[in-house]
């Protein structure tokens, strides 16, 4: 079984660079998919309150026979709970649903610029959660540079992670550099652009050159750039394929060819305009 490299966060916590994502996996399919990923060798699971499948993730971790300390689990604060007391209650509910006494990483899912509760207040609640010891690290998701600068100026604890959309069509190099400058690890969601990049001629060429699939080449591009990545699939063969990233390398030329595909194309919403709150 391959050894997945870890990245040390700004508070000393180590996170596996490759994980398994459960976004858009139906609750009734989540336990089996997560259990399969753990059997393949994944030790990092990324879920969220909004996904509605925390209970099944927790059940899979218990059913795997692995010690809780062997599996790094992330969840994220749902968008309707940005006020301090609501955020604290939502975190408590996540622990109940997962069946855990702590989370390895808890994130603010979206900055939500158009709602009444400011994300700075939300982050101060996250700081309380972190100080309680029930989240080993805290971070943000979908935050841009200006959102982060506000946190730096108005709060005490720097996010350990910023999880944002990144793929070859949206390389986010400026934001990644800003994160790195401020000791924030960058995580990439939608790492293959919901499959859009897999037919790109440049990626197909690189894949043929190195004898790998376009998905493996794209995920390896992320790994070599230093992104933390967590592809998702409910298909066992695809879960295995996505894990087989550590017995080959892309050349500098390969990396440049893939990065050159960047044209600022999002598959998801712009965080400055997204204010969705689940009903």
How is this fold's topology laid out?
Elements: E1 6-8, E2 14-16, E3 20-21, H1 27-40, E4 44-46, H2 54-63, E5 72-77, H3 84-98, E6 105-108, H4 119-131, E7 138-141, H5 145-154, E8 161-165, H6 173-181, E9 185-189, H7 201-210, H8 214-225, E10 228-229, H9 236-243, H10 252-259
Parallel strand pairs: 3-4, 4-5, 5-6, 6-7, 7-8, 8-9, 9-10
Antiparallel strand pairs: 1-2
Describe the structure.
With about 280 residues, the protein is α/β, with parallel strands linked by helices. Helices cover about 40% and strands about 15% of the residues. The strands form 2 sheets. An 8-stranded parallel sheet has the order 3-4-5-6-7-8-9-10. Strands 1-2 form a two-stranded antiparallel sheet. It starts with 5 loop residues before the first strand and ends in a 20-residue tail after the last helix.
Comma- or semicolon-separated keywords:
single chain, 279 residues, alpha/beta, TIM Barrel, two-stranded antiparallel ribbon, globular
Portion in helices: 25-40%
- Briefly note the CATH topology name of the domain at 6-192 and 226-232: TIM Barrel
Distance between the termini: 43 Å
CATH architecture identity of the domain at 6-192 and 226-232: Alpha-Beta Barrel
Could you spell the SSE succession in H and E letters? EEEHEHEHEHEHEHEHHEHH
Beta-strand share of residues? 5-15%
Rounded radius of gyration (Å): 18 Å
pLDDT below 50 for ≥5 consecutive residues: which ranges?
Answer: none
How many strands, which pairing sense, and closed or not: the largest β-sheet?
A: 8 strands, parallel
CATH homology-level superfamily of the domain at 6-192 and 226-232 = NADP-dependent oxidoreductase domain
What is the general shape? globular
CATH class (first level) name of the domain at 6-192 and 226-232: Alpha Beta
- The overall pLDDT average reads 97
Given helix and strand content, the structural type is: alpha/beta
- The main sheet orders its strands as 3-4-5-6-7-8-9-10
């Amino acid at each position: 079984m391959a050894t997945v490299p870890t990245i040390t966060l700004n508070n000393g916590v180590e996170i596996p660079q490759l994980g398994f994502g459960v976004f858009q996996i139906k609750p009734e399919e989540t336990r089996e998919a997560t259990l399969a990923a753990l059997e393949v060798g994944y030790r990092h699971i990324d879920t969220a309150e909004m996904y509605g499948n925390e209970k099944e993730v927790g059940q899979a971790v218990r059913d795997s026979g692995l010690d809780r300390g062997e599996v790094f689990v992330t969840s994220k604060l749902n968008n309707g709970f940005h006020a301090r007391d609501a955020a604290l209650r939502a975190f408590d509910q996540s622990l109940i649903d997962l069946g855990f006494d702590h989370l390895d990483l808890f994130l603010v899912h979206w900055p939500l610029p158009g709602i009444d509760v400011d994300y700075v207040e939300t982050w101060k609640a996250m700081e309380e959660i972190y100080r309680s010891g029930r989240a080993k690290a805290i971070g943000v998701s979908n935050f841009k540079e200006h959102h982060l600068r506000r946190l730096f100026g108005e709060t005490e604890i720097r996010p350990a992670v910023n999880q944002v959309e990144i793929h070859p069509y949206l390389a986010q190099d400026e934001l990644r550099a800003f994160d790195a400058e401020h000791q924030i690890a960058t995580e990439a969601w939608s790492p293959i652009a919901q499959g859009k990049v897999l037919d790109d001629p440049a990626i197909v060429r690189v894949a043929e050159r190195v004898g790998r699939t376009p998905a493996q080449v794209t995920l390896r591009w992320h790994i070599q750039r230093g992104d933390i990545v967590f592809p998702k699939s409910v298909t066992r063969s695809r879960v295995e394929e996505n894990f087989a990233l550590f017995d080959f390398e892309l050349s500098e030329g390969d990396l440049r060819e893939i990065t050159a595909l960047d044209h600022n194309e999002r598959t998801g919403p712009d965080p400055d305009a997204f204010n969705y709150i689940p009903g």
